[in-house]
Structures are given as C-alpha cells and as structure tokens.
Amino acid sequence: MDKMPILNIDGLSVSFAAYGKGAGKKELRVISNLSINAHEGEILAVAGASGSGKSLLAMAILGILPRNAKAEGAISYKGKALDEMLLRKLRGREIAFVPQSVEYLDPMMRAGKQVSGDKSAVEKVFERYRLDKSVSGMFPFQLSGGMARRILCATAVVGGANLIIADEPTPGMSKELATRAMKHFRDLANEGAAVMLITHDLSLALGYTDRVAIFYAGTTAEIAFASDFECEDKLRHPYTKALWRAMPENGFSPIPGSQPLAGKLHQGCLFEARCDIKTKECIRGAIKPRVVRGGEVCCLYAT
Amino acid sequence: MQLEARGIKFGYDKSRLILDDVLITIKPGERVGMIGPSGCGKSTLALILSGYITPQGGDVFLGGKPLPKKGFCPVQLIHQNPEKSLNPRIKLKESLGEAWSPPAEFLDKVGITAQWLERYPRELSAGELQRFCIARVFAEQTRFIIADEISVMLDVITQAQIWEFIINETRQREIGLLAITHSAELARKICTRVIEYGQ
Q: B161 and A254 in contact by Cβ < 8 A?
C-alpha cells in the first residue's frame, strides 16, 4: 500500500443548510471528518447504516452534492486536488459513477443511447450484462428494475474508467446477475481501476472486495479487510460486529435502536447509545482512528 | 379467508406476455417467499395481487370474492423504494394518517421515533421511511401484505429489525404475506414456504 492511491479523501465533512422556524438557519452536519482512500487494483466496499452518508460521500467526490450542501476537506485524484475544473475533465471519462436510483436514467431517451461509447464497446457491455439487443431500443419505463440497474452499470463501465464509484449497483438484480456484475467490477479492478462500491449486500460483496469501510452516522467506524468478515472475532468495532450478527446467514439477530439523527451528534463515539462495552470515556471527546490488527477502528476498546 | 389468483395473464407489450397463466394461493398467517430472475414479472404480479392493475386475463379472489374496487383494500403492497411511495409535500404524520392512526405502542414496536412524525420524507433516511410504509399497511382491515423487495435498500441491522417486527405482527394477527426477494438466505429466514418463480 505504499503506492499513491487513486482516490484520497482527507478530513471530509459535508453539511446541509437547514432552515428552522422563521429566519433561523442552522448547519446540519451529515459527514464528519472522514478519511479514506482507494488504490489501483482495489475494490473498496463502503457499507454501514442506511442514512449514514454513503451516497453523499459519492456525490461529494463527484462534485454533484445538492446545492444547499457544503463540503470541506481535501479530495484528491492521483495526487491532484479534485476541483471543479479537473472534475469537469474527468467525470464520465476517467471517473465513472453508477448512481443509486434508477431515476437517474433519462426517461425520454432509449436505453441503448444512454450507454454512450462506440458501437462494438456498447454491444460487448450489453452481452456482458446479458441484456437482449431489443432492450437497446426500449425507454426506461419499459425496463424492469433489474434491467434498469444493468443499464446504469453499463453506462459507467463502457468507457474504461480509472475510478469507478458505484452506489448500490445490484439491488433488483437476481443473484446470478448480481454475481456477474461483481465479477465485472473485479475484472475492472484487476485491469488497474480503483472501485468504490457502496453496498448493503455484504454477503454478495465480500467475495470480491479487498477492504470494507463501515460507516455509522457520517463517519467511518472501521476499515476492515474483507477476510475479517469470516468470523465475528476478527472484526474490531462493536457496530461492525452487530452488523455481522444481523446478516441472514449469521443469525439474523438485530440490536435495538437506530443511529443518532444528524444535528443531534455529540463529540464522542456516536455508537455509544447502543454499545454494551461503553464507558464514560466514550463520550468525553473525539475518538481518533487507530490501527488494530492491520485495520483501522474508531473505538477506545477495540482489540 | 385466502388470497387466490388464477390464470393471471399480463403483458406490457401485446406480443409478449410476461405473466401467462399464473396461479398462486396464500393462506392467512402464511409467509410465502418468491424468488425469480430479474424481469420475470414478480413486481407486476405484486401490483395485480394488491389491485393496482387489472390483469388481462384471470382473476384475483379474496375469500372467494373479487378485490373491492372502492375503499380500503385488504391486500396491501409495500414498495421497494420508500422515498418514491411517500408524498414529499406532506409530513409523515399525515401520510401515516391516510391509512390509520396507530397507537403509540405500535409506533414503538415498528421503531418510529415520535419526532419523525413532524418531519418531511426528504429529512429521513430510506430505512426510517420504510418503517412508515410498513406501519401504514398494518391498518386494522389488512388481511394480506405483499412485500416487494422491501429491505434491499436497508442495512442488515435495520433489515433484521424490520423483518422481526413483520413476522411477529403477521403471526399475531394471522395476516398472510408474500415476500418478493432475490436473496435465498433471507427467504429461508423469514418465510414458511418459498416459491422459485421461473420464466
């Protein structure tokens, strides 16, 4: 991991301007002080609580945050600061995006047209995703959920990008298709791309990813190796362990509660309210990430 | 009272039927899982069973009678995307009120915090919104629930919490359930019977 990462994020915070009663304006912080990187040839999975800021991270990288959101911190691509100018040059070419919602497809444009690229490349990618030739002439409303997903993936991977950011690319796909999509991401990584894969389907993703970043309430709780998910003991953060126990194949038993709301965040550990190994120290101040068994964890008591 | 669909035919394109002579029966209190390839018509069947679209052939019967055309439909559908199934311009309290007024203990069980009621859909995450969509379909008159991939957008903890609630509630009230999913592991965990839906 000595090589320069393709994507490097250092101390990213994202906040929304929210209007309260009357003229009162406040800042709602949804991502706080997040640092993460993705290397050449690597698939980095980003998993964690729904609403923990995973999609916003993707939008922040691509510079497509909603207008009332503000990002702070440094994002760099191959060592160069990823600003608006550079993004404009790279977006859709070297940096590709698979958006989360199928509503990103243009409803007035035939599916085949939305996958831009030369003809043979488009045909190849259609074949790869098992999309029938007739699908190319259909409009988005004629596609099933799974087909629309595959079109979205196809638009991103057709051009030979160096950095692919995929926001939940597989829901709605059958197991077989989802596996094919994962294999394709793996091939692209093996050919030298860096892939950031935002997903909830850990059972599917683990077989293809290198590292997994676990998000909770807008920050990383842990960065683990995919192989750490073989058993609960290899994981470091209490939240990651709770996730592991809730997977259908590992017991399916949830812990109660939900993550704290944005705007109600305190300085210390944000998982504290649901944790059974917490102490008074946990809410005293910011908890810095530390290296434990090669992975990174934000917990005072992780071993 | 069982939910029964016989000889269902449907095609978006006249030349190609995606549902051709489909037969399915769900008994009260039963939890049926349905797994099948993408684009095979699972979501279309869900829309037909819950009365949103009329099949081009065949019938849906609830307790031997066709689904009511007016008023509350005892077969309720939960969609895959909660952000698309809630009115963005009204508070969640009002969205919930369209179906019924659940008691406080019920909201507690489904995991809805009182403060969320005063918020608009865009202020909550998918997992939080899905709890409202689930709370809505559990109105008193509901006899059957069709769940179309309702937990794919959720983290595994929220997924397990939501299913734990649905299983307990449907068991207690003898509500029948059809769960459409792509995950065989999930179907095995939550269902009493699993259908592999082929082309």
A: yes
